[in-house]
C-alpha cells in the first residue's frame, strides 16, 4: 500500500498500483473528484467576485465543469468501471488557501485578484492532469471513446486559462491594477 504523506488531514491511502491501467484509473478518479468539487467552488467564486467579467467567467466555467464531470462519467462507463472519486491533496490545499484568503482580505478588488490567481493555478493543474491522463490513455491503447472526452476537457481548461490570462491584461482591469499597485 502506498501512502501519500503531507498534512495529516489530507493523507490519502492508495491501494497497490502495479500497472499503467490502475494508475490511469487512480488519476481519473482524482480528476473526477477535482471536477465535482470545482462545480461548487466556481459557483462560490462567481457569486463572491465583484468584477462582472470575472463573475461571468467563473459562472460559465462552472457550467463547462458540469459537462466535464459528465464526460468523465462517460469515460468510467467505457472502462466498465463505476465512477469513483479519490481525494487529491493538491485541490484540497488550493481550497484551504482560498478560504484563508477570503477570511483575510476585506478589499473586494484584492479578493478578485486572489480569485484570478487561484483560477489560473487551478487551470494549470487541471491541464497537466488531463495531459497526463491523455498520455497514459495513448500508451495503454485506449480508443477515442476514452481519449476524446479527456481531450475535450483539456481544451476547455486551456481556454479557461487563456480567458483568465487575457482578463488580467484587459483594459477594464487597468484601473484595478493601478489601484492595487503602488
UniProtKB/TrEMBL annotation:
Pfam families in the record: DUF892
Descriptive protein name: Ferritin-like metal-binding protein YciE
InterPro entries (UniProt xref): DUF892_YciF-like, Ferritin-like, Ferritin-like_SF, YciF
Top-level taxon: Archaea
Amino acid at each position: 500500500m502506498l501512502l501519500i504523506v503531507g498534512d495529516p488531514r489530507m493523507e490519502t491511502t492508495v491501494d497497490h498500483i502495479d500497472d499503467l491501467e490502475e494508475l490511469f484509473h487512480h488519476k481519473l478518479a482524482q480528476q473526477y473528484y477535482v471536477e465535482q468539487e470545482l462545480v461548487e467552488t466556481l459557483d462560490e467564486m462567481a457569486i463572491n467576485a465583484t468584477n462582472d467579467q470575472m463573475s461571468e467567467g467563473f459562472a460559465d466555467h462552472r457550467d463547462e465543469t458540469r459537462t466535464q464531470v459528465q464526460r468523465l462519467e462517460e469515460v468510467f462507463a467505457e472502462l466498465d468501471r463505476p465512477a469513483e472519486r479519490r481525494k487529491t491533496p493538491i485541490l484540497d490545499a488550493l481550497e484551504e488557501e482560498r478560504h484563508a484568503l477570503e477570511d483575510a482580505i476585506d478589499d473586494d478588488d484584492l479578493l478578485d485578484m486572489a480569485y484570478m490567481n487561484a483560477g489560473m493555478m487551478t487551470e494549470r493543474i487541471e491541464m497537466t492532469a488531463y495531459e497526463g491522463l491523455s498520455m497514459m490513455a495513448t500508451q495503454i491503447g485506449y480508443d477515442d471513446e476514452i481519449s476524446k472526452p479527456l481531450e475535450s476537457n483539456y481544451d476547455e481548461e486551456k481556454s479557461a486559462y487563456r480567458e483568465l490570462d487575457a482578463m488580467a491584461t484587459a483594459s477594464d482591469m487597468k484601473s484595478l491594477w493601478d489601484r492595487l499597485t503602488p
